[in-house]
Amino acid sequence: MRERLTGVRGLYRAGYRSVLAYRADLWFGIAGLVIQATLTVVVWRVLYAGHDEVAGIDRSTAVSYAVLAAAIQAVIMPWQFSSLPFRVLRGQIGVDMMRPRSLISQNLAQAVGTMVGRLPIGVAGLLTGLALGGVQPPRSAAGLGLWVISMSLGIANILIVNLLVSMTAFWTLEIGGFMIVYRFATAFLSGALIPLWFMPGWLQPILGWLPFQAQMYAPLSIWFGTRDGVLGVLALQVGWVVVLFGLLQLVWRRAVHKVVVLGG
Amino acid sequence: MIEVDALTKEFSRPDVRPGRFAGTRSLFTRARKVTRAVDGISFRIDAGELIGFLGPNGAGKSTTIKMLTGILVPTSGTVTVAGQVPWRDRRQNARTIGAVFGQRTQLWYDLPLRDSFGIIRDLYGMDAATYRTRLGEFTELLGLDEFIDTPVRSLSLGQRMRGDLVAAMLYAPPILYLDEPTVGLDVVAKGKIREFVAEINTRRGTTVVLTTHDMDDVERLCRRVIIIDHGVLLYEGDLESLKARYVTTRDIVVHATEFDLTSVASPFAEVLTAGPAKATLRFAPATTSTPKVVHDLTSRYPITDLSVLEPDLEDVIRQLYTERRTG
Amino acid sequence: MAESVLRQEVRAGRILLRAAWRAAMGYRANFLMTIMGGVALQGTQLLFLGVLLAKFQVIDGWRFNDLAFLFALRLAAHAMYVVPFGAMIRIDQAVQQGDMDRYLIRPAGAYLQVITSYAPLMALGDLLLGCTALAIFAPQSSVDWSPVKVAFLVAAVLGGGLVEAGLQTFLAAFAFKLTSTMSMRILADDTISRFSGYPLTMFGRWGFLSLTFLFPMAFIAYLPATVLLGRTDQLPIPTWLAAASPAGGLLVFTLALMFFNRMIKHYNSPGS
């Protein structure tokens, strides 16, 4: 067990280090989020000019949500979310499979490492929001605790879905376009760009039944206390993680049978 | 043709110090380390020469070649190739030189080899007739016809290298740079490439600058060599005098079937090993001529077979490096 | 001489581009998906705007139809950048993996060879989205269309594309000095994607001025749109400057290209 942990920890460290290795990348990520958080605050304040409440949400909640979502998105939805397709394409996947850890835990550890490495970016965004008076803290300590739980479930959800989507690489090698569609679809459907409150009425129930809203919108709505039945929200999140993980195992098993090693 | 004077190239790279929090610390440090890859080299290469450019790994060979081709800009010193400064007159220079870099291809990865040649024809503005004759000639010389319609990504290393050679010579540049053209190739492919290089050098008078680790390449192709190490020039001159200077002894191997060679001896040579059927002796060609030793041995022993071992270039080079490093 | 170099460049560009498209067609399998990727990339922003406007109707005094036109203008300008210059996204690899070596010893400009190194299929998605959006929203805007205004629109779209190309070229030039420029180029691209389609004066006087002169995003769509919509009175800059905005792209791009060519001398070919 202990040995197993060290192996996974090594990969986690690799992901974390790979973020830090590109010093300039991290600094630009930070600068970018500071600029974008600032502009976002302005956009939402201008939008709310002349409105007290829109869709039952007041100005400061809307601004907070936009900034927080941008900061969290920067950490947990990196552009490069998995090295798996690249490794399949290069035929390195065979080597990965021979390592004593399962490919799934290797990839998850690496993805978590990447997120930890990107934490400074999110913190910078959060600080910007606080400095501009754009971020409200959670209503209570209990709220914060529930948010932490919900956010962890959201992250687990993202990790699994990302890996699931990356596994398409086992079936087709040209997935660039598909990955981009996926990235933007999740950003939109998870509520990272616009809170579900503002979505058109017919779209809301559909989004509510998709796994994506459990990634970002669910934890944030707990932060702002805008949703009743917090336990129900958490239960739904747990449900999604379980279902998606089951799906991941299933797809993974089929992928193993289909390993295409190119130029190996 | 090529004139190089006090050529120097320095690289500055971030200095990564190991230790705890090395990664996190590197976010804030700006320490850089300057290394001098090429350090004041001067030489000249005349038109029509086929010159070997030798040195161990990291000696500065590739860096020098890249400055000659105009890819890198020198930190100081000058390079003139056919009267031009390569990195300043890039467009002119491109038509003067052909280049083959062993590790990477210059061809269009996703297109058949033939298409790459077509693009080069268009890019260099070749007329159709010249293109056809030259491609035909090269195809025959290098045996390209089996794979000329295969996409470059599916070619073997040897095939790709042959394709790269043709691509570099299609527009008949007066100078050809070859950086490790035979590394990792099988004997047949190596032979084909050597043949081609020799042919374009002798028949077309193309000046060839060849860097290689393969001493066979050098012995078969080059009359003159330039040897560098740690960015400085160690030797410039012809191969024969290099050997004469660094190889002071030569070995002779004799065989006998009806005589026991264990007690073999000669006043002109020193016995290295002696067995019943085979013995090796060493002599100094500077004081004793080879025929003299051969005559002495054959007249006194019933020898059935005899061979004089040529000095091994690799040994010569190794000796040169160690001498430089310790001296 | 200068003219003949330009002619050579155009000829070489045609040859290399043809080769790049021929190579891209070898991977036809995901053609449609790749184009959809391009649509999604910018389309999300359009969706974002649509959802917001459905709830808020007005942004900084601009109504839906004019905002949609402003946004369409920026999408079309973006297409004018990604279709010809999209391959620039791989500049880091070209420098790190040494493809640059090859570009520097061929009889064509290194920059030209970078942007023609592959065919950016995804850009066709941007083109599709940009043209469609402009065709739909330009007639619905409150612009009183005349042949002169249409000509100005075309010039603005081309100029806007060149502004983006210039900004990206400027950043790409740092690839010769830094390990990676991807994040800074993504930052520029993302900032442009997210914010260049808004009435930029909403960011305050200094915000607007820095987006005009420091990071000249205003030239991409906002300044030309204010001219077409007759809203130049809300600008804290002279009207003539807004009227001349389509030429801004040419200036930005020329300066950036000069900078790029100067930076080539810092190229450290890998493996040497």
From TrEMBL, chain A:
Q: Where are the transmembrane segments?
A: 26-50, 62-81, 108-132, 144-173, 179-199, 230-252
Signal peptide span: none
Q: Report the InterPro entries cross-referenced here.
A: ABC-2_transporter-like
- One protein family per Pfam: ABC2_membrane_6
Identify the keywords attached in UniProt to this record, alphabetized: Membrane, Transmembrane, Transmembrane helix
Q: What is this protein called?
A: ABC-2 type transport system permease protein
| Species this protein is from | Kribbella sandramycini
UniProtKB/TrEMBL annotation, chain B:
Q: Name one GO cellular component term.
A: plasma membrane
Q: Does the keyword ATP-binding apply?
A: yes
**Which Pfam families would you find in this protein's record?**
ABC_tran
Q: Where in the cell is it found?
A: Cell membrane
What's a single GO BP term from this record?
response to antibiotic
Gene3D superfamilies according to UniProt:
P-loop containing nucleotide triphosphate hydrolases (3.40.50.300)
**Which keywords fit this entry according to its UniProt record?**
Antibiotic resistance, ATP-binding, Nucleotide-binding, Transport
Any one GO MF annotation of this record: ATP hydrolysis activity
The membrane-topology field of this record reads: Peripheral membrane protein
Organism's domain of life? Bacteria
Residues annotated as domain ABC transporter: 22-255
PANTHER family associated with the record? ABC TRANSPORTER ATP-BINDING PROTEIN, ABC-TRANSPORT PROTEIN, ATP-BINDING COMPONENT
Q: Identify this protein by name.
A: ABC-2 type transport system ATP-binding protein
The lineage is: Bacteria, Bacillati, Actinomycetota, Actinomycetes, Propionibacteriales
From TrEMBL, chain C:
Q: Lineage from the top down?
A: Bacteria, Bacillati, Actinomycetota, Actinomycetes, Propionibacteriales
Q: From which residue to which does any coiled coil extend?
A: none
Q: Which PANTHER family match?
A: INTEGRAL MEMBRANE TRANSPORT PROTEIN, SLR0610 PROTEIN-RELATED
Key word Glycoprotein present: no
Keywords of this entry:
Membrane, Transmembrane, Transmembrane helix
Its domain of life reads: Bacteria
| TM region(s), chain numbering | 31-56, 68-89, 110-138, 150-176, 203-225, 237-260
InterPro entries linked: ABC-2_transporter-like
Keyword hit for Membrane:
yes
The molecule here is called ABC transporter permease
* A Pfam family that the UniProt record links to this protein: ABC2_membrane_6
Name its species: Kribbella sandramycini
